[in-house]
């Protein structure tokens, strides 16, 4: 019984800093930098609307991903064991639609406030996301689903 619980406890991704936390930190940094060190580039209203569009698109990507998780009854909590991985819906085009949505929100939310720092923080967010989250998720999925996951990975790009 004890070894069963230990195996169960290890059957998860094991991420230390979740992707939403990384994203929120970067969005807050972008907004703070916008206030403390504003870039000397005007942000006309149409730019702010474009920012709102990016943020909305990012939100929609996340919703589409979660809908697909529910549709196939896959676990969306990285702290729980994966029973399957999703390859349908939005996952036919990107392996990480939620994270792509987070990147669009990092660009869009500050931009909607007239702050351009979100653009400059995209690369650090993507780097952190790749190294601190996605690398662990993909390693876990490869161990758990083997050829099925590596085949999917060879046909669908990580981001776009």
Written description of the protein model:
This protein has helices at residues 2-10, 19-36, 45-71, 97-112, 117-120, 122-145, 147-155. The chain has 160 residues and is mainly α. The chain has one domain (45-160): Up-down Bundle (Four Helix Bundle (Hemerythrin (Met), subunit A)). The longest helix has 27 residues, at 45-71. The protein is elongated. The termini are far apart. The model is unreliable at 1-9 (pLDDT under 50).
Which topology does CATH recognise? Four Helix Bundle (Hemerythrin (Met), subunit A)
* Average residue-wise pLDDT: 90
Report the sheet with the most strands, covering strand number, pairing sense and barrel closure.
Answer: none
Q: Please give the domain count.
A: 1
- Low-pLDDT stretches: 1-9
The number of helical segments is 7
Residues in helix, % = 55-70%
- H-E string: HHHHHHH
- Proportion in β-strands: under 5%
**Helix/strand/pairing category:** mainly alpha
Number of strands: 0
Distance between the termini: 43 Å
What is the CATH class name?
Mainly Alpha
Principal-axis shape = elongated
Radius of gyration: 18 Å
């Amino acid at each position: 019984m004890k070894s069963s619980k230990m195996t169960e406890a290890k059957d998860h991704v094991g991420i230390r800093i979740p992707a939403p936390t990384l994203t929120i930190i970067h969005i807050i940094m972008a907004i703070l930098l916008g206030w403390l060190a504003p870039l000397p580039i005007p942000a006309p209203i149409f730019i702010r609307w474009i920012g709102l569009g990016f943020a909305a698109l990012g939100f929609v990507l996340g919703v589409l991903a979660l809908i697909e998780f529910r549709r196939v009854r896959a676990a969306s909590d990285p702290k729980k064991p994966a029973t399957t991985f999703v390859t349908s819906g939005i996952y036919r085009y990107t392996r990480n639609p939620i994270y792509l949505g987070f990147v669009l929100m990092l660009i869009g939310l500050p931009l909607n406030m007239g702050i351009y720092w979100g653009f400059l923080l995209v690369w650090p967010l993507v780097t952190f996301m790749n190294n601190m989250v996605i690398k662990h998720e993909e390693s876990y999925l490869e161990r758990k689903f083997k050829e099925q996951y590596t085949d999917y990975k060879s046909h669908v790009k990580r981001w776009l």
